[in-house]
């Protein structure tokens, strides 16, 4: 097990009963709130009206910035920073999924930074401080509600980049599984895929031994695999949403990272896909991950075989562990198909024309690599895109 | 899943590399430290000399209060409070296991309280604030290094009582698995038993469904069961100690409590045993828990059968789930015996003479109950003591 430091300060309010206290919760962080959200679904569902009412009753002032898009854009972040600076905002309250939350984190850090917030995303500067961020989560997926990460897309050059910093942990997150009832099936599938990939990126590691966190990751994956088909079949099943939503948070709150270095190449490889084609991150991951697994399988067959047996209940075969490992990947693909995902690029109309360019962008040139389990050069990534065709 | 609020603020420094930074870590919390510890083992191992050196080099003043005993005593807590008040202590730094840490928490809360600190332990007052507590853990067991709990024994009347409060979470804890190398086998076994009971107390719940946390608890129990025999066989196995130590913290850091109400009767029933006979808490739990399980089994045979199959790998038998359940309890007893525990009161020379008195103390009289899975009256507890003979 690698040495580590672990602390997750986010206060989680989970269940049906906390939305009615959002005003009082937010009031702990100041007087003036930026309410930040995406499209109309939170308006239609009554969530935004409820939050406005709660904030008002708690005596808070608030400004609003809607319009966050999937793969949240830098241009809106700039607008948010302007709003925060000119209105002395104390708290950025994100309502929605990972896009609204990641955008809120960028705004929160950018407001207290003298330079260009994009500096944080290209490694030119490290976020040291940020306005407090709170979240009201409406979809289990990105895990950003209790993570130190933020992913933003710069429109110019279609650059999708991530930053991690302790000051980006939300101070609090309100999770009510009932808010997931109205999610469309494709969004559910994308969220489920994203959660599974957060777990799998951490699972495939060279740190060893990591028995305990292996088992925790397997337990979380089994929960997601068990509950996802149930929420798709019965979108108003509170109990199943609750399991899935809490699993989605734990999948990405850094606990399952402790003592191990995850891989994260699939995330980088996918980011190029969603940046260029503007597809959902989860949809891209369902295509990239199996190809990545096939490409890296022989680096550690035992690990893939353990994954196959423990997560997918593939029968043991110590005489041919690669067979066990490959069956695990096949079951992952079959599972993703069963929840409505495509698992090949050709199925979503993407061909090879941009592979070289995307691979070079993923690694920032031929000299660099992405991924820790198996460091991949641009040429490897291009091969993975081909395997995904 | 029940609604819940979850936040664990303790910063964990895990591994070999952090002890050298204890001075700098402690310096974040002030200038003046009370160093609080038990007997001579931390002195002999070189840990206390190292900490004194680190604190001094970081420019901190410190006072010392050693002599914490297992089942830590209220009288020493009073001494610590006096020391803190008269020396303007900023941080109480506990070095040792659960006893030193629980005692430090009591001192930290008592220092900022005008009344008698024992008020917190008998429910007469709620701790609202406490001095910051840091810990340097030397044994995986109590989980107090990242929990909001403290258990103290009042010598007069042999009262052993617990309190939980957010202000009692340590601010930081330093966990170096190497510090466990010199633990005697009996202490290892008691620590392992305590960890397993923290998990089992949470597992046996009436909250349902709680699939995700069930799986996380099972994963943690499997880790403890796998690694405990290895550290007993090879006390200097860093990797196995690391798994066990981290599992011991997660077992009790409130995560595995989320969305469910644990039982905790066995802990209460055991507390009377260790208060009266001054045996180790873990040793008492190894005797009380199987008896408690046999007594409550029929309340939810499915839960006991799931526990048996998933944790102990008992073969499924849907035609006779009680048989599966009973086999699980038998395997728990066999495992505890295998690590050197006694699992019957008669084996440690305790007979029935005080059963009635202990049962009445555990429940604070005939009218009250302990435990949530199955609320138990004094008469039930007496029956459990008898089952444990």
Task: Write a compact overview of the structure shown.
Two copies of one chain form a homodimer. Chain A has helices at 22-27, 41-44, 47-57, 74-87, 98-111, 118-121, 185-203, 211-233, 238-250, 265-277, 281-296, 301-312, 321-338, 355-363, 378-387; strands at residues 4-14, 32-37, 61-65, 91-96, 133-137, 149-154, 159-164, 172-175.
Account of the protein in words:
The structure is a homodimer of 389-residue chains. The first copy, chain A, starts with a strand and ends with a helix. The first copy, chain A, is of the alpha/beta class and 389 residues long. A 6-stranded parallel sheet of chain A has the order 1-8-5-4-2-3, with helices on both faces. The radius of gyration of chain A is 20 Å and the shape is globular. Chain A has 15 helices and 8 strands. In chain A, a hairpin with a 4-residue loop joins strand 6 and strand 7. In chain A, helix 4 packs across helix 5, helix 8 crosses helix 12 and helix 10 packs across helix 14. The first copy, chain A, folds into 2 domains: 169 residues, 3-Layer(aba) Sandwich (Rossmann fold), CATH 3.40.50.1970; 205 residues, Dehydroquinate synthase-like - alpha domain (Dehydroquinate synthase-like, alpha domain, Up-down Bundle), CATH 1.20.1090.10.
Biggest sheet of chain A, strands in spatial order?
1-8-5-4-2-3
Structural class by helix and strand composition of chain A:
alpha/beta
Number of helices of chain A: 15
The domain count of chain A comes to 2
Number of E-state strands of chain A = 8
Run of helices and strands of chain A: EHEHHEHEHHEEEEHHHHHHHHH
Instruction: Provide mean pLDDT of chain A, rounded.
Output: 97
User: Considering DSSP H and I runs of 4 or more, what fraction of the residues of chain A is helical?
Assistant: 40-55%
Briefly note the CATH topology name of the largest domain in chain A: Dehydroquinate synthase-like, alpha domain
For the biggest sheet of chain A, the summary is: 6 strands, parallel
Q: For the terminal residues of chain A, how far apart are their CA atoms?
A: 37 Å
From the structure provided, what is the oligomeric state, counting identical versus distinct chains? homodimer
Give the low-confidence spans of chain A. Answer: none
Strand content of chain A: 5-15%
């Amino acid at each position: 097990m690698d040495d580590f430091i672990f602390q997750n300060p986010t206060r989680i309010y989970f269940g049906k009963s906390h939305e009615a206290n959002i005003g009082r919760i937010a009031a702990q962080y100041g007087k003036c709130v930026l309410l930040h959200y995406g499209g109309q679904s939170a308006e239609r569902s009554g969530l935004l009206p409820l939050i406005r009412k709660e904030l008002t009753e708690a005596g808070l002032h608030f400004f609003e910035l809607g319009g966050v898009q999937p793969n949240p854009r830098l241009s809106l972040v700039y607008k948010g920073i302007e709003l925060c600076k000119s209105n002395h905002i104390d708290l950025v309250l994100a309502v929605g999924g990972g896009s609204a939350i990641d955008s809120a984190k960028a705004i929160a850090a950018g407001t207290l930074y003298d330079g260009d917030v994009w500096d944080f995303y290209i490694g030119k500067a490290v976020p040291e401080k940020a306005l407090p961020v709170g979240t009201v989560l409406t979809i289990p997926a990105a895990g950003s509600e209790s993570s130190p990460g933020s992913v933003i897309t710069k429109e110019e050059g279609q650059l999708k980049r991530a930053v991690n910093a302790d000051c980006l942990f939300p101070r609090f997150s309100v999770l009510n599984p009932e808010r997931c009832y109205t999610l469309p099936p494709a969004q559910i599938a994308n969220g489920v895929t994203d959660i599974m990939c957060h777990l799998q990126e951490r699972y495939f590691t060279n740190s060893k031994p990591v028995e305990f966190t292996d088992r925790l990751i397997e337990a979380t994956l089994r929960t997601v695999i068990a509950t996802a088909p149930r929420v798709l079949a019965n979108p108003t099943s509170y109990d199943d949403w609750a399991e899935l939503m809490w699993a989605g948070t734990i999948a990405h709150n850094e606990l399952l990272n402790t003592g191990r270095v995850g891989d994260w190449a699939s995330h980088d490889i996918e980011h190029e896909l969603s940046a260029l084609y503007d597809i959902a991150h989860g949809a891209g991951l369902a295509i990239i991950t199996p190809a990545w697994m096939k490409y890296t399988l022989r680096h550690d067959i035992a690990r893939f075989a353990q994954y196959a047996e423990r997560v997918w209940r593939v029968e043991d075969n110590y005489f041919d562990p690669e067979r066990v490992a490959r069956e695990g990947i096949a079951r992952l693909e079959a599972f993703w198909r069963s929840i409505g995902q495509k698992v090949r690029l050709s199925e979503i109309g993407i061909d090879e024309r941009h592979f070289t360019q995307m691979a070079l962008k993923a690694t920032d040139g031929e000299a660099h690599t992405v991924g820790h389990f198996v460091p991949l050069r641009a040429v490897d990534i291009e091969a993975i895109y081909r395997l995904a065709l």
